[in-house]
Design goal:
Helix content is 30%, strand content 23%. The protein is of the alpha/beta class and 281 residues long. It folds into two domains: 215 residues, Vaccinia Virus protein VP39 (Rossmann fold); 53 residues, no CATH class.
Length: 281
Amino acid sequence: MWSLLEFFPEDFQINILDVGAALIERPPYQSLVDVGRGRIFGFEPNQQACEQLNREYGSPHRFFPFFIGDGGPAIFHETNWGPTGSLYEPNSQLLEKFQNLAEVVTPVATHAVNTTRLDDIADIGDIDFIKIDVQGGELVVFENASRSLSSALLIQTEVEFVELYKGQPMFADVDTFLRANGFQFHTMNGVSGRAFKPLIANGDVNSAFRQSLWADALYVRDWMRLGDLSETKLRNYAILAHDVLRSYDLAHLVLSALDSRTGGGRAADYLQRLAGNNPPS
């Protein structure tokens, strides 16, 4: 699929905030970075992983080895697989019920750490896209990120449907908070689960029968209030909807709002381009 950036040849960057930015898989914003239109402010508390990110991405991207939270002291629960470490204690009794969960979320040590509020980091200015994956601590991050939330257009956040970590907020808690702060739920990516032991689904210990456990939830700025957004924000919103979400109907809706502000014809051109490209449903 072609990029909506083709409709906007002027020089600009979309600002990305990535909390929990370790290089485990290709991030959803990578295509924007590859063409020089995405700038990352990232946080990865593992010093080695943070240094790797700074080496691989370089300027103008910046990654910081901070634990993001409420600004107070906390206990980091280190596990046998780095990406499953958390500021919440693994709920081992629950994890043991499922195939291949306790095996990759085995506590190995605890560490006293200090957390940093996003609102207290002066380097972070206007943000368009927030991606966050901090193993149960997402709500605490959001509660202390009012500046970033006030400008964000798209949020991708990991959410859990059962208590994988003791006392962690659930999807319902995150959903309530984000909707109260001007976002609409859009869709889920990568809904994942596991089979209850001793059964194995499809011969794969990482597959599930019916039990969903976690996913990435995607939220977008309230499309009922597009009139509140600036022309710049409408442009960035449309690009994120097309290039990151592949939500072509939403991109058209936002382009229409932009055209009503500028008198342009991008929405009609977009429909024509889509008709010739036959985008997937």
